[in-house]
Specification:
alpha/beta; 7-stranded mixed β-sheet; 6-stranded mixed β-sheet; 18% strand; elongated
C-alpha cells in the first residue's frame, strides 16, 4: 500500500524545512536520510507505517506523502489518509506532469514517469478537506535526451512561455484542514473591460461613459483606481444603472498602471478581456467588432486601430510583430483577448516596468498570432504608447522568447500598403501636424461608419418578431 520514494537532496531540504518544532510526523516512505533529517529537527517520526490504522494510532501532527501513495487511487487515497490523520497537516510532494522534462520525454517516446498536474492535485486535496497553505518548487538537473542542446533549450523556453510551471520538475504542497473559497469560472460570452484609473476623475468618467455606450452586452467593467472608495463609487454610479452592465470596483489601488491592471485581471469573470486607461475613448462598436473577429476564427486575441500611434504611422496592412513593435503599436486599449484560448499562458503585465504593454504584446504575439483587420480607428488614446525596441530586447535577452510561425508567413512579400497609409506616412514626413489632422479626419469617417453600423443593427432588431 505504501510506496517508497527516493528523494533528491534538494527535495529532502525542502521537506525538512517545512517539518520541525518537535511534532509527531508520519513519513509515508522508507527514505532513511529524510527520516533522520526530520528527527534532527526535533520531531518524532513514524516511518513507512504498515497501515493507515497505525497512522491513526500515532495521532500525527504532520503527514509527509509522495506521489506513489496516490498512484492507483488518486483522490480516494487522499480521502482515506485524511480520515486516518485527523487534523494533521499534509506535506505532499509529486512530480509535475506539466514540466518541460516530462513533455520532452513524451515527445521523444521515452518511458513516462508517474506525474500529476497541480490543478488535479489541488482538487483532490480540496475534496479531502484540505486547503493549500504554501507551495515549494524543486528544479532538478536535466537528463540527457539525445537532442541538440540548443534545440532542447529552445523547446524548454517555448514550453515555459506557455506555462511558467514547465520549469518545475517537482512540487511540494503544504495543506491544512479547511475549506477554500473557489473563484467563479469565467462566464462564456461576457466581455470584461479592465479600467485602470489614477487621480484624474474627469478622464476616468469620460472613459466609463464611452464604455457604457458600447453595443456589446453583457458587459462587465472592472474599475481599479487610485481613488478613495466613496469617490470611486460616485464615478461609476452612472455605469451601474445601465442595462446589461455589471461593475466591480477596487479603490485605493497602486499608482503603477500595470499593477492596477493585474489587480483588475484577478477580479474579471469574462471570457473576453479588454483594457482601458483613464482618458481612453471607444467608439460604440469597438467591442462588438472585435468579438466578431474572434468568433469568426480560432485565434486567441484581436486588434483594432487607434487614431494615434507612437510615430503617427498608419498600421501595416497585415500583422507583422516586428513591424508593429518598431512602430510602437502596442497599447493594450487596442486588444481583446479570449481567455478560453490561452490555456495556462500567464496573462499578466510586468509591474514597475515602463514597457509593460510592449512586453506582454511581444509574448502574446510570438505564440498567438492575432486577428487583425485594418478598419477605421475605434479607439482614441489620451497619450500614444512610447518605448524603445532596443530596451525591450535587452530585457528579454537573458531568456529569449521563442515564436510560432509558418514558412509562408516568413517568405511572402509584404503587401502593398493601403492608400490611406501611404498618404499619412508621406504627410508625416512633410509636416506631422498635417498628418495628425489627416488621422483625425479618418477617425471622423470611422465614427460615421460606426453610426451607420448602429443604425443597421437597430433596423435589424426592429425587423425581428
Amino acid at each position: 500500500m505504501i510506496v517508497a520514494a527516493q528523494l533528491a537532496q534538494d527535495l529532502r531540504t525542502v521537506v525538512t524545512r517545512r517539518v520541525g518544532g518537535k511534532r509527531r510526523v508520519v513519513v509515508l516512505a522508507s527514505d532513511l536520510a529524510l527520516v533522520r533529517a526530520i528527527e534532527a529537527n526535533g520531531c518524532t517520526v513514524l516511518a513507512d507505517p504498515a497501515s493507515l490504522d497505525e497512522v491513526a494510532a500515532f495521532r500525527p501532527e504532520v503527514v509527509v506523502v509522495f506521489d506513489g501513495f496516490v498512484l492507483r487511487d488518486g483522490q480516494e487515497a487522499l480521502r482515506r489518509l485524511a480520515s486516518a490523520s485527523g487534523e494533521a497537516e499534509l506535506v505532499f510532494s509529486f512530480a509535475n506532469a506539466a514540466s518541460a522534462s516530462a513533455l520532452l520525454a513524451g515527445l521523444l517516446g521515452l518511458p513516462p514517469a508517474p506525474a500529476f498536474s497541480e490543478p488535479e492535485v489541488r482538487r483532490w486535496l480540496a475534496s479531502a478537506g484540505f486547503v493549500v497553505a504554501s507551495r515549494d518548487a524543486v528544479v532538478t538537473a536535466p537528463v540527457a535526451t539525445g537532442l541538440s542542446a540548443d534545440t532542447e533549450a529552445a523547446l524548454r523556453q517555448l514550453f515555459e512561455q506557455l506555462n511558467p510551471d514547465a520549469a518545475i520538475d517537482r512540487l511540494l504542497l503544504v495543506a491544512r484542514r479547511g475549506v477554500e473559497a473557489t473563484k467563479p469560472d469565467r462566464s462564456p460570452g461576457l466581455v470584461s473591460v479592465i479600467v485602470s484609473g489614477g487621480a484624474d476623475v474627469a478622464a476616468l468618467e469620460g472613459t466609463l461613459s464611452s464604455l457604457a455606450n458600447q453595443h456589446r452586452r453583457p458587459l462587465e467593467l472592472v474599475v481599479v483606481a487610485a481613488l478613495p472608495a466613496e469617490r470611486l463609487d460616485e464615478v461609476v454610479s452612472r455605469a451601474r444603472v445601465r442595462s446589461g452592465i455589471s461593475v466591480i470596483t477596487k479603490a485605493d489601488a497602486p499608482t503603477d498602471p500595470a499593477a492596477r491592471t493585474n489587480a483588475g485581471l484577478a477580479l474579471a469573470q469574462g471570457q473576453y478581456v479588454a483594457f482601458a486607461e483613464e482618458g481612453t475613448l471607444f467608439s460604440p462598436m469597438h467591442l462588438t467588432s472585435l468579438v466578431r473577429l474572434l468568433e469568426d476564427g480560432t485565434v486567441a486575441w484581436a486588434l483594432t486601430s487607434s487614431a494615434t500611434s507612437a510615430r503617427g504611422a498608419a498600421r501595416p496592412a497585415r500583422f507583422d510583430l516586428g513591424a508593429w513593435l518598431r512602430d510602437g503599436l502596442v497599447h493594450r486599449a487596442e486588444w481583446l483577448i479570449d481567455t478560453s484560448r490561452l490555456a495556462s499562458f500567464p496573462l499578466t503585465f510586468a509591474e514597475g516596468e515602463r514597457d509593460a504593454d510592449a512586453l506582454l504584446f511581444a509574448r502574446l504575439g510570438l505564440l498567438f498570432p492575432p486577428a487583425w483587420r485594418p478598419d477605421a480607428p475605434t479607439v482614441e488614446l489620451s497619450t500614444p504608447p512610447s518605448f524603445a525596441v532596443d530596451a525591450l530586447l535587452a530585457k528579454l535577452r537573458g531568456r529569449p522568447l521563442r515564436g510560432l510561425t509558418t514558412l509562408d508567413a516568413l517568405v511572402q512579400p509584404p503587401p502593398v500598403p493601403a492608400l490611406a497609409a501611404q498618404v499619412q506616412e508621406r504627410l508625416a514626413a512633410v509636416d506631422p501636424r498635417v498628418a495628425e489632422a489627416f488621422a483625425r479626419t479618418r477617425n471622423v469617417l470611422g465614427r460615421v461608419q460606426d453610426a451607420w453600423e448602429k443604425a443597421r443593427v437597430a433596423a435589424d432588431a426592429e425587423r425581428k418578431p
